[in-house]
From TrEMBL:
Organism name: Leucocoprinus birnbaumii
Entry-linked Pfam families: Epimerase (PF01370)
Domain of life: Eukaryota
All copies of domain NAD-dependent epimerase/dehydratase, residue ranges: 6-240
Enzyme Commission number, as recorded: 1.1.1.271
Transmembrane segments: none
Name recorded for this polypeptide: GDP-L-fucose synthase
SUPFAM superfamilies found in the cross-reference section: NAD(P)-binding Rossmann-fold domains (SSF51735)
Amino acid sequence: MSKPVILVTGGTGLVGQAIKHVIETEPEGSRFGKRPGETWIFASSSEGDLRDAVQTRQLYEKYKPTHVIHLAALVGGLFKNMKYKLTFLRDNILINDNVLHTSYETQVQKVISCLSTCVFPDKVEYPLDENKIHTGPPHESNFGYAHAKRMVDVQNHAYKEEFGCNFSSAIPTNVFGPHDNFDLDDSHVIPGLIHKCYLAKKNNTPFVVAGTGKPLRQFIFSWDLAKLFIWMLREYDDVEPVILSGRSPPSLTALRLLRLVGEDEEVSIKQVADAIVKAVGFQGNYTFDTSRADGQFRKPASNKKLLALMGGFQFTPFEEALDITVDWFLKNYDTART
Ligand code: NDP
């Protein structure tokens, strides 16, 4: 048996860098740490544009991966998703097809690809679970991205049925952590709000949150997600996807801060903004710009399958994860994606 070479596509992004962090900091040989003989490759787009079949093949020929965690994707916030639907559809279809087909052709032993809870139907019974992906059209705001991602699940099944490939996929909820995209116009909610709040504090200006603050979301800290990807790569052997959703058992302070009631896995955007204000140390008041679109109101996803398979997992408390993220942002402001 050849020694494992694990190629992480999109290795320079938020999730890829989190996997790198976990592999480098967890004790060697532990459940999530590096194992003897393993080589981990964290590839960026500069090593090969995965929209291009030839460049994808060259990347595989260079590293000869035995396993692939496929994260590379055109990713964006709500407004970019709404504006560039065809680009999101086409780029992601090309990237996914090249990665999966080259993995098949070069006999990669296992591929774990990355979907998103955006793939689920807009009109669906909550909570989301792994059986509901294809039961109706996705929300129109990101249908390009969502359809491209859904096709990965379709392809995984087809590769398994026709060629016996061991390809599967993970479905994370909203991810945040160090190395996120903190761009003010094109980021996900947490990094965008952290950046805005930081600027409001620095410039002594109001902190304005887009939308009503009412939509509910589930978040997962990137370092926790990284461990779950490593677990899937090593211990999960089924084509069916697994939802990777963070259920942070909140500390008392977090409970008070986030006023978690009922569906305790969901937090409102306002609750997130409150927590960011605290982590950044912003003293002023902030307002909500209700003229901006809210996006989907809620989309709770169940992590029952994950927890049943893993037998429990210690999630990082939300406020601790937020502090780590804010701290990273402040220390890396000059080089972060802003
Ligand atoms: P980032 O935007 O942080 O990183 C994207 C990565 O993909 C980068 O390494 C980038 O390389 C690479 N990439 C983009 N286009 C290409 C290309 N054409 N060829 C090769 N590499 C490319 O993304 P995240 O880490 O946030 O996302 C990782 C995965 O998780 C994605 O599949 C995403 O859909 C999924 N996901 C993310 C969520 C989130 O909240 N962030 C939620 C749910 C799912 P480079 O640095 O060189 O540009």
